[in-house]
Amino acid sequence: MYTLFGSLLTCGAMIGSITSGPIADFIGRKGPSAVPFAGLKGFNQVKVTSAKMELSITRPDDWHLHLRDGNLLEMVVPHSAQHFGRAIVMPNLKPPITTTAAAVAYRESILKGLPANSDFTPLMTLYLTDSTSPTEIKLARESGVIYAVKLYPAGATTNSQDGVTDLFGKCLPVLEEMIKHNMPLLVHGEVTNPEVDIFDREKVFIETVLRPLVQKYPQLKVVMEHITTMDAVKFIESCTEGSIAATVTPQHLVLNRNSLFQGGLQPHNYCLPVLKREIHRQAIVSAVTSGSKQYFLGTDSAPHERQKKECSCGCAGIYNAPVALSIYAKVFEEAGALDKLEAFTSFNGPDFYGLPRNTSKIKLRKTPWRVPESFSYAAGHIVPMFAGEMLDWLPSDV
Could you give all domains of the chain from N- to C-terminal order, each with its CATH number? Predict the structure, then answer.
């Protein structure tokens, strides 16, 4: 069902037996630029043994996560808690999380669904509407558990029907209050005008909404979530570091729009923003593996019951929480940028939000493992990204 771009790398019995690919190129460098695996910048521990390579990195955070609610929440939250220390939790439930009181209650539901002894911390968000008040922003900041406000253009994606219809006409007092409290605006960056081609919705949003917003409020911290185009990369890099950033998903790093149609319509590859051309995928890979601090991990992991994906009008969303770290590691490995992986997964996000970095570690071991075909819960089954396929990197606790 899925196809990863690029060839898989294998680690030989000894360093000297690795003769091709990015790892061999890295090891084979001579002179002042040569850095042995044991001293790779950014890793606390990198080693090659007789059968595997292991990376020990600071525990990552997920800066864009959908946990849903009810039985589905109870099924999916352990997958994120297993690998991530914290997560920015999206507020697009039914009804949406539009008040501080609702966000606090939702947080309690998440905490109750965690495995015993888990120290996973949900970072809550508010759902911005045309009627959100500045007072609600003040209450949110004072709560100590709400860290951002989410902008969904009305009708842009799952449960976005209550989103904003007129950002500049109805939401300016709220944005000004957010600046006072240094609260980031998280943006689903797509216009919803039906006359705009679906593959151009992000580009048009940047020019008609996001660029004017940043020009009007340069002090506002903005995260452009799940970027999908070279247009987004160019925009992010034209902005001041520390005020504008972007999250990047696993799917937009390894899949292009061909993946929607290979061998027939592939509903489990359908997400919003929709997958784009290969040139856009390559631009995003280059951006996140460059070492820029403006990009950080945000899975946009979005579970839907199988029958809601495999139907005449399937839901948008890819459930990638169980495989995300494996895919990110593969992308950085193939780009010859494993030394930059830890900053992307574990440093850039908390630095942008003004939060401390995690102190615990996780291990990424280069060993093949098979992704489950599905996960069962009371209402049905969830199909994960790369269901039934083999992946190269296996995350685990140190």
Answer: 58-359 (3.20.20.140)
DSSP letter for 275, please: P
C-alpha 337/C-alpha 331 separation (Å) is 8
Give the pLDDT score at 259. 98
Q: Which residues contact 357 (CB under 8 A, 6 or more apart)?
A: 58, 346, 347, 350, 351
Nearest to 150 by CA among 247, 256, 59, 49: 247
Tell me the three-class secondary structure of 163-200, residue by residue: CECCHHHHCHHHHHHHHHCCCCEEECCCCCCCCCCHHH
Dump pLDDT digits (tens) for 279-334: 999 999 999 999 999 999 999 999 999 999 999 999 999 999 999 999 999 999 99
Measured distance CA(254)–CA(1) in Å, rounded:
13
Which candidate in 79, 83, 150, 252 is catalytic? 150
Indicate if 64 belongs to the active site: yes
Q: Which of 79, 83, 188, 203 is catalytic?
A: 188
The confidence score (pLDDT) of residue 51 equals 54
Amino acid found at 16: G
Residue from 162, 231, 300, 392 carrying the catalytic annotation:
300
Q: How far apart are the first and last CA of the chain?
A: 32
Structure-block tokens of residue 108: 């309690």
For the question of residue 226 being annotated catalytic, the response is yes
- Rounded to two decimals, the pTM is 0.87
Reply yes or no on whether 268 is catalytic: no
Edge-to-edge order in the sheet of strand 185-187: 62-65, 86-89, 121-127, 146-151, 185-187, 222-224, 244-248, 295-297
**70-83 and 100-112 helices, crossing angle to 10°:** 70
Is 66 a known active-site residue?
yes
Residue 29 neighbours by CB distance under 10 Å:
11
Q: Compute the distance between CA of residue 217 and CA of residue 188 in angstroms, rounded to an integer.
A: 18
Distance CA 141, CA 184 (A): 11
pLDDT by residue (tens digit) across 165-220? 999 999 999 999 999 999 999 999 999 999 999 999 999 999 999 999 999 999 99
From 79, 83, 226, 268, active-site residue? 226
**Vertex 145 angle, CA 140 and 146, to 5°:** 45
Q: Which of 61, 66, 221, 309 is catalytic?
A: 66
Q: C-alpha 291: how far from its chain's center?
A: 17
